[in-house]
Amino acid sequence: MVQRSLVIAVAPLVVALLLLFYAPNIALVYYSFYDRVRGVFTIDFYLDVITNTVYLNVILYSLSIAVTTVLATLALTLPVAAYIALYSRGFERILLLVIFTTPFWIDFLLRAWALKSLLYMVGVREGFLALMVGMVYDYIPFTLLPVYASLARMPPHIVDVARTLGAGSLDIWTRIIIPYAVPGVLVGSALVLLMSFTELVIPSLLGGVRGFTVGPLIYTLILAGDDWGRGAALAIVITVLSVLSIVLAYRRFKGWLL
Amino acid sequence: MAGVEVRFEDVWKSYEAVIALRGVTLTAPGGRITVLLGQSGCGKTTLLKIAAGLLEPDRGRVYFNGVDYTRVPAERRDVGMVFQDLALFPHMSVFENVAFGLRVRGVRGLELERRVREVLDLVGLDGSFYNRRVTELSGGQQQRVALARALVIEPKVLLLDEPLAHLDYKVKQRLLEEVRRIQRSLRITTIYVTHDQLEAMAVGDVIAVMRDGYVVQVGTPREVYENPRDLYVASFFGDANILDPRFAGLDSDGLVALRFEDVILNPNGDVDVVYEGVVEDIVFQGAFVGLEVNVNNRSLKLLVPRREFARQGVSLGSRVRVGWKLSEVRGFNSGAT
Amino acid sequence: MSSKQLLRVYTYVIALLLYIPIAFMVISSFNSSPYIGVWEGFTTYWYQLLLRDSEAHIALVNSLTIAIVSSTLSVSTALLAALQVRGRRLTAVDALVYPPIVMPEVAEAVALFLAFTYLGVEKGWLTVMLGHTAFNLAFAYVTLTVSRVRFEELEDAARTLGAGRLQTFKDIILPLAMPGIVAALAITFLLSFTNFIKTLFTTGPGFYTLPILIWNRARRPGISEFASQNALNALATLVTLTALSIAVAYTAYMLRKAGR
Fold first, then answer.
1. In this predicted model, what pLDDT tens digit does every residue of A8-19 receive, in sequence order?
2. What's the angle, vertex CA B38, arms to CA B34 and CA B41, rounded to 5?
3. E strand or H helix at B243, and its extent?
């Protein structure tokens, strides 16, 4: 009796997800193996994507941009997270959290657009620098919040306790604050790596000729080039790479993601 | 009104892999407080929820005054239940919490107000509380609201699930007295779940000791205390030394139990067994003093009235005699605990 | 200066940097010069232009209707499930729900494109809305389960007091679950309203939402007066303000709830 009402309640969600998410993914897999021109199934598209230097270079270039983005956002946000978690109190903490979460509500496209005009005015044209500034600017909140969340779980007064035990500032940072930040750092890094690796908007809008990363590549293959097979294979390859990084981070720190 | 008698007959219940109840048969007499006593996981809360109709037993029946209530859903049972975490509605005032059960029954206007007022008077909350949010109240006050909310519908049966678990000692004592007072004045059949033996003794007319899904023993507090059915009951309900029967002075198998207070310090005759030993620990407990005496490398615990202890002038390391009457030693048929 | 003071100054500098581009965009939208960085005076000309911008009107209507329908659909579907899923059970549902969140959006967008193409569905309002809903379902469900919409003991309490399922839902669950429902609606609405990538892949010729319109114009600025820098700044400012006002209303609602 209870079981049946449960099934009835859950069924619409499950069916909708199956139709709208899982079925399209079957189409994705199908087209990644199906050569429309020759009408045969093949693994050539995958081989192409992971052996053809053109694709490989784009993947590696995107990865290097993603890794740089992760490192830059971490370096910039770690002190901010530490300040909010360890020193801010009451109203100031709420204010800072609101300040740093609000950009979440504004779309990437709009923020990238806003940045583009500003960079144009100060003389930075489309290119690698603009691309990196755009990436860091857009992804700061995504590293900040997980790092803050893990630092906020530090027992209160632990820094004071360490002081009474004779720890200096350096000890406090290396032995207490950074170890506590590690889970948030990993989660934030995985998140930013995943998103910036496959980013489409920022490279297209700010990167100019240096903006040809996997996002724009897939866009070109599918929508402009009509090359569904390679586009689909590439989409699957980056999905696998991304999901692996998330799973690894999640395995290690269960419960930190949400 | 004598109150509704609640009877469980061969009630079984399991959750996935865990069997919570293994054939419980028990009668909660009308108008009395029956305590379900046991450690966490013994099945006492499951049994209470079956009484409430919140769970259906896998097997077995539940009768209210002889009428089969097994399949009657909770909302039609007319039971008042106080939950472990109280389950007060956080978005409602004190008044609205208590009024909820009446509103559901279509009671409105002056009648509603009168009945809520009556029951809040009964639990000792005056008009200044009516519009307070329940989240602003102290633990003891929330407890009173929960009790009032359960009582206002004039239930057939009152079910209390560890209602005083999170309260301070003093508040707990006062509320225990009030629960008894209210129950006596309403003569309502009450089933009271607790893991605390002192609470059980203080409040129970009948005590049902539960363990691993079974009811191990049923009786008045005095019966259960004086004649525990096995070693488990002896050591869980009150405190007892568990001893080798030959050491205790009996010729039997297994183990025997001897209550702490039945061991007499420096007896003058009137005992059947006497040993000598050394006092190894003294714990002052107020009215009583706990002693631990080493007798031939066996540790024996005693509970001595404070005055008696003072008169004897015993201190750590003192050599003392300890003794007891054989009639106080409880032997059990099997060695099973 | 102590390390605390130093950190504090640094924190506010970063906070400021985060908002400078947005502030610049807003200010530029009131600049009477069409050239970036050349201030000629205050004007509302670009906003008046928007009044005549029929493409922007169509895009606004499309964005709003898709966001409203998609968020309502996904939240009600997810709520139905979230209300029934007890405790930590039903990991099977969780396992179905998380992949849409983890999968790179561009890959999901390609999948939707291929599926709709395979089926021969004409791409437009419906395909965009369904594409958004795929993603929103997962976010709505996670938001609802994280923010607690089940109150088992309270539901049990209401039942012993004589309330049936419907009454328990109306009087107990719904008022208490409201913050979670509002959160899920706000999040899914904004995810849909501002979505770009999936829209790009599921839209057809001649159908566009606000982000698509902005994208098209941002890539080819100056092809018409409507696509000039500051006209675009005005449009972007309005979209940002819409998103921010929802964010502010949502935060205020949550703080009021938490304060009580």
1. 888 899 999 999
2. 125
3. strand B240-243
CATH number for C54-259 (one of 3.30.420.40, 3.40.50.10810, 1.10.3720.10, 1.10.10.60): it is 1.10.3720.10
DSSP string for C58-101? HHHHHHHHHHHHHHHHHHHHHHHHHHH--TT--HHHHHHHHHHH
Higher model confidence: residue A114 or residue B332? A114
Closest by CA position to A146, among listed A100, A196, A93, A91:
A100
Strands B189-194 and B157-161: parallel
Which letter does DSSP use for residue C42 in this model? B
Cα–Cα distance between C212 and A101 in angstroms, integer?
A: 24
Would you tell me the crossing angle of helices A228-252 and A44-51 to the nearest 10 degrees?
70
Check C96 against A14: CB less than 8 A apart: yes
Query: And the tokens for C226?
Result: 């409507």
Q: What is the CATH number of domain B240-331?
A: 2.40.50.100
pTM reported for the whole predicted model:
0.77
In the sheet where B67-68 sits, what is the strand order? B18-28, B6-15, B59-64, B67-68
List, for residues B70-80, the tens digit of each pLDDT value.
Answer: 999 998 999 99
| Cross-chain residue pair C162–B76, CB shorter than 8 Å | yes
Smallest Cβ distance to C161: which of B49, B91, B100?
B100
- Provide φ and ψ at A125, rounded to 5°: -90, 170
Neighboring chains of B (3 or more beta-carbon pairs < 8 A): C
Q: Which residues of C2-32 are buried (b: 16+ CB within 10 A; e: fewer)?
A: eeeeebbeebeebeeebeebbebbbebbbbe
Opening angle at CA A189, ends A173 and C71, nearest 5? 125
C160 lies within 8 A of chain B by CB: yes
Q: How far is CA C228 from CA A86, A202, B51, B256, C33, in A?
A: 46, 20, 74, 96, 11
